[in-house]
Amino acid sequence: MEAIQYVAEIVKELQRSAEQIADAEAETLADLILQSNHVFVAGAGRSGLMGRAFAMRLMHTGANAYVVGETITPGIGEGDVLIIGTGSGETKSLIPMAQKAKSLGASVVAVTIAPESTIGSLADAVVRLPGSPKDQASGSYTTIQPMASLFEQTMLIFYDAVILRMMEKQGQDTGRMYGRHANLE
């Protein structure tokens, strides 16, 4: 298969994934973010990279958004929300974050393939995204892509859709967001 054929198949996979996302879960996430004092985003590996992109767009909307683990990230507390992107919901470094956030009165959202996972069970809200886990032998969703690529791509598109919904609710447009774009580049 040629590279462009792979691109076409990936786009088809993403379309099938997008059709499986529950609108109510997306709406809940947008509302939690809009009602929170601070938004914290966490994830490991490529899921973490998708979270970093989401945190950047959240900042562009005017949200007080932070990536867990950065040196400028403040403490979490009551009225805040922690959004954890994790395919398996069992990432060992992320479970204590969810537990700590809950103990400090923050809301926790799991964006995951596995709502019944440890992190999913700790969460106040769960967004179930389709995709194959890294261990495809245990997954029921088939993909031509390696490891958890489909989940990670779906997560990025989902996060962008949440940003669009937030923009709509706030009456924001792209021009206003550009006012918060980095200008020391």
TrEMBL record:
Residues 29-172 form the SIS domain. Signal peptide: none annotated. This is 6-phospho-3-hexuloisomerase. Gene3D superfamilies: Glucose-6-phosphate isomerase like protein, domain 1. It comes from the Bacteria. Pfam families: SIS. NCBIfam families: RuMP_HxlB. Belongs to the SIS family. PHI subfamily.
